[in-house]
Amino acid sequence: MLCLPRDSSTLSVVRHIAAAALEELGVVTEEIDDVSLALTEAAANVVKHSGEGDQYEVHLILENSTCEIRVVDTGHGFDSSSLAVSMAGPSEEQGRGMALMAALVDSVRFESRPEDGTIVHLVKDLSLRPDGPLDRLVAQEPAATP
Q1: CA 50 to CA 90: how far, in whole Å?
Q2: Taking burial as the number of CB atoms within 10 A of a residue's CB, which of 33, 91, 112, 136 is the most buried?
Q3: In the chain, what percentage of residues exceed pLDDT 70?
Q4: Is 50 exceeded by the pLDDT of residue 138?
């Protein structure tokens, strides 16, 4: 978990730490790029929309070959049902982030708590390099019994 100040300079830090961790674990490059970009979009929304002095946390959770990222802010929350899920037009200056996140990961979910912040959940099933540490660990996991 990282706890960061609401500042645009933290976006590259978050992206690089997540990408380096996934690379070390043996995730294929294309999916590292997808996760990194979706995470950057989620964190950029926090920086843009939360209040002065707010902080945010980034949690990266790996379970088998599934990656869940939670971006948690301490802002005022919002009505997540009002989000546009379609891509903005080519002349629009904003409005692409939600559709981009949805295109890059398998699941995007928002949990907003009025006056208590928002959690963006990003979930991606990862492809692993056969020689990577995570692939070896997943292969060692005992099969679930019914």
Answers
A1: 26
A2: 112
A3: 81
A4: yes
